[in-house]
Structures are given as structure tokens and as C-alpha cells.
Amino acid sequence: MTNVTLLFSLLLIIAGCAASPASVVNRAQPPSIRIKTHQVEVGETLYSIAWRYDLKVDRLAQANSLDRSYLITPGQTLTLILGNPKSRMNGLNQHRVLKGDTLFSIASDYGIEVQSLARANNLDSPFLLYPGQIITLDTNKLKIAKGNTSQVSNSRIPEIPNRAKKTVYSKNLQWKWPIKGQVIEGFSPDKLQKGIKVKTSAGSTVHAAAPGNVVYAGSGLRGYGKLIIIKHSDMLLSAYANNHKLLVEVGQAVKHKDGISKLGVDGMMYFEIRKDGDPVNPLKYIK
User: Fold this and answer.
1) Would you say residue 101 lies in a domain?
2) For residue 81, which of 90, 91, 71 has the smallest C-alpha distance?
3) pTM for the whole thing?
């Protein structure tokens, strides 16, 4: 009789718990950890690093105070926090001129008087600048030059310093299929598909989709296999991944239909196009 009473009491307790379930506390997922720095490994270029982190290469260069050569060395630590490219928060004393910059816009962005900035950089009116030019923001230099205003107006316009020969890119790019095959995976950034996958025959030759210059050729990007990145303009890059053999090297100029790589036995090529560092749908460019 005692056992029956005990069992009945347990059933009442269980029923009570079922009628008043414990509340569930909703907890937001912790924010993802943002990678802030990257240590350069052997074989990497600034283009491959920018590609890995979905960054625009010239912004990455500016954040790390690199000149137009974009030279980096193994073991070097790069910041990946770009912020406002014209912000003084990074503590740099230089500004690398970007397309569309003027001395007036630079002075405004950094809160510096135009004439002081011109004197510090030996610039005369009309203060002509060119993309890639390094403008000093050194306040000590500004103070030294401050009382020297009479020499500015009488000085000649200085020669543009020696710089690397600027690559001339085609203004009317015509894109062609790098290989003939079937698109088996389309462009879908929401699904982390930043390019397209094309299936073709084993050992097929991959061609440049448009004229340009090779800025990366190697296997340093995890998940891309042997990869080639071609720069087509100041805004457009293309990438060819999952290669078996590379036929070009960094710095080489390529034209339409130039063979750049060979595929493996699976005949699978992954292809991306990026504009200003952002993935775009290749099918909107290729004809």
C-alpha cells in the first residue's frame, strides 16, 4: 500500500512539472572572431592575401603603408583592419594618392591646411597629383616649412619622382570563356559561392578570360589548389583555381585565349571575377 501511495505521489510531481515547463532563455550567438592581422608566408603576394580576406588590394597596401610595388616579405605581419583609408587613426604620416584624390580633398580628410600640405611636399599650384604618389603628412616637416612661404610661389614645379612603369590596361575589356564546359555550380554569395564551377574534359587547357597581367600564381591559398590571379584593370581581377599545372608566372602579361594552366583528371575549374575587391557574377561578363 505504501508503494502505491509513493508511485501516485511521483506521478503528481511529474504532471506538475509538465504543466509548468522551465522557461528557455534565448541567447544570441557570440559575434564571430575577426582576424586582424596576417603573417606573410613564402610564395604569397599582396594580391593573394587581399583575395583570401575579400579586401581591395590598394586599401590593404595603404593600411600597411606599402608603395605601388606592393612588395612584402615572408614573416612580415600585415594589418587587415583597413578602416577609413583616409583616416589618421592608423598613425601613419603618409598618404598614398588614390584615383580621384586632389590635394584639397587630402588636406580636408586629414584636417591640414592646403598651403601647408603643399609646402611640405614641394608642390606648386595647380598641385598636380598622380595615383600612387606618396604625400607626406609629417607635422614636424609642416612646422619647419611653415615660415618658408615666400619660396613656394617662386619655386619651379618639381619633377615627378622616378616610379615603376604603370601597366596600361585595355579600356574595352571583352571577356571570353576560359574553357568550354558545363557550369555545375553557379554564383551565390549567400551560400559562400563566390564564383562558378565549370566541368570539362580531363587535362584541358585554361585560357585567360581577358587580357591582363598575372599577379599571383601558386598554391598558397587554402581551398583553391593551384591558383592564378590576373589583373585586368584597376578594378577588375579574375581567378582560375583547381589547376594541375601552371603555365604562367607572376608579372607575365597575357592576352585573350593565352593558355595559362592545365586542369587535372577531374576536369574541374573554379572561376571568379572580382570588382573593387568584391565577388561579382562571372556570367554577367563572359560571352
Assistant:
1) yes
2) 90
3) 0.58
